[in-house]
Amino acid sequence: MAKLRDYNMNGTIILGVDAGYGNYKTARCCFPTSVSRSSQPPVFTRDYLEYEGSYYTIGEGHKDFVAEKSMDDDNYILTLAAIAKELKARGLSAAKLHLAVGLPLKWVQAQRDSFREYMMQNRHVDYKYAGKRYTVDIVDCTVMPQCYAAVAESLPDFKGMHMVADIGNGTMNVMILNNGKASEIKSWTVKLGANECFMAIRSLILDRKAEELPAEIIENYLRYGSTDIGDEYKALMEEAAKSYVDKIFAELKAHGYNPNLMKLYIMGGGAKVVELVGDYDCDNVTFNHDIRANAKGYEYFCYMKLRRQKAMSCAG
């Protein structure tokens, strides 16, 4: 599990934001990826953002999958909310920031520049969140690969051959490490995130029971591996989850996973359901259930990159 620490460079805070399709994460915070806009403040919650004359309720409802995040205005609002939540956790309301963000492994190269510009569309931002004012200067933004960033600090521990699978809500990132070294030709992004399991559970119960299972029950099952409902519903949820996890392992094998030749490291929001219903050798598979691992990894990865750049500049 990535350590929790603060990174600064020349008085600028390096702040990681993992813009997930199911949840937004920072090093200290996590909240659902959903936002709704209105011209008036909401009545029943203080969890809203006030920005440029509009009010945005955060974390209620469900947001559809959008492959290119820079094409979705909601991601900017959600990023501002993530910044406010993280600053509040650090006891701050004003800061100079270097944003550390990420994209799925195989999308970084094509989308890096547009996503960086999107995140830096306003160098100075003044807004309110939960009734408190935040003043933020965004000095720079570094875009990194998901999955790889999450394990960057612990790469020396990956002795021999490993397959790493980061199962998010919308996508699954997969890479093979050889003694901690990654290769572009052995890294993949597959649209097989935990939301597919969510939809499979909902559809199966609708088919068998003619009932719409509340989203919160399914989300609790996927995140924690248990939920307090009747045995018949539990059995159906497990049946659908097993079918999804079988797809996960079939996909991993299609990309070279062989339990006799390598170890498997599974992380992300979908790791719990794999651990719960998957068919695997416990001695060969490691699970990391820290869903904020990418956000923490972005900060570490960014800090090390900036430190190297600074050293090279001084040497030159």
From TrEMBL:
Organism expressing this protein natively: Acetatifactor muris
Actin homologue MreB-like C-terminal domain location: 164-275
Protein's name according to its UniProt entry: Uncharacterized protein
Record-linked Gene3D superfamilies: 3.30.420.40
Residues in Actin-like protein N-terminal domain copies: 16-148
